[in-house]
Amino acid sequence: MLIGVPKEIKNNEYRVGMTPAGVRELVGLGHQVIVETNAGKAIGLTNEMYSQAGAEIYELASEIFSVAELIIKVKEPQAQERKMLRPQQTLFTYLHLAPDFAQTKDLVDSNSICIAYETVTDKAGGLPLLAPMSEVAGRMSVQAGAHALEKTQGGMGILLAGVPGVSPAKVVVLGGGVVGINAARIAMGMGADVTIIDKSLARLKELDEQFGPQLKTIYSTTDTVERAVYRADMVVGAVLIPGATAPKLVTRSMLIKMKNGAVIIDVAIDQGGCFESSYPTTHDEPTYIEDGVIHYCVANMPGGVARTSTFALTNATLPFIIDLANKGIDKALNEDEYLRRGLNIYQGKVTYQAVAEAHDYPYQEATDLLG
To answer: Looking at the domain assignment, is residue 19 inside a domain?
Structure first.
């Protein structure tokens, strides 16, 4: 199979969809890999490294899109990339379609095959291609929030850990999944007073057994969320409904009662955000202030640590890429129900129910469409 790896073009996005090690694996299996020039240069992966691994270096993304059977990316295709997609060409990347009608329409109209990292599952019901970036984003969220709490950044001027005789910051994490656990771990490691709120009693029990009294756990209701965010110095939004728009757990009416100079980190912003006042920001301008509350809503947060993120992501995606390449797209999707759950769009049809419902498209079962 001919596999193409274009350079990412989203604002401050330096990750790359495949490392030289991944190229070497695929070339060794008899496949051809073409990589856009300098696709990984920003994180120390040079053209020479890709060439030595067996890739061909192409000067333009358009050249890659025009010939590759399988396109491997990191972030959702930008408008100019979507115009280059061809019928029956396969795109394998993060998509986050539920809050993004324009992208969904373009991908449907392209008649391409679009597989989303974030909805591929595993036998345990986990999200193996989302998990690595969730781990990164969860850990980064507290790091970013601690910086935003500094007075020079518009925050209250609070040190997360406090000092002897001065209380630490109160950190509230909404959601006890991969993002939430990693955020809580870093916040506790920095000495903060940490509370996780989740609607799963089983998850709360697991967290209590794992972390003990150092971590407070609260069952999620409107009342408990409201009271927790009013007291919080930092709130990390870490909720996820796979493939669907994130629920708005913190409303504007709650926001205006939060502490002046408190910080919100909306890690769910890729799926629309879990704060009613959130909208996507970039690494160039990561924060904004609304009703006195600092909002950090960077949509590609792991891109800030692009080298770590690239290796973490590609370790997880490579086995699926090999499967798609070795078997062919339809056969790989037919034989692997967990990979098939990543299929969001198949040649003009929406095959992920949450995306179809979000944008009022007819929903089609993937198994009815695959050859």
So the answer is: yes
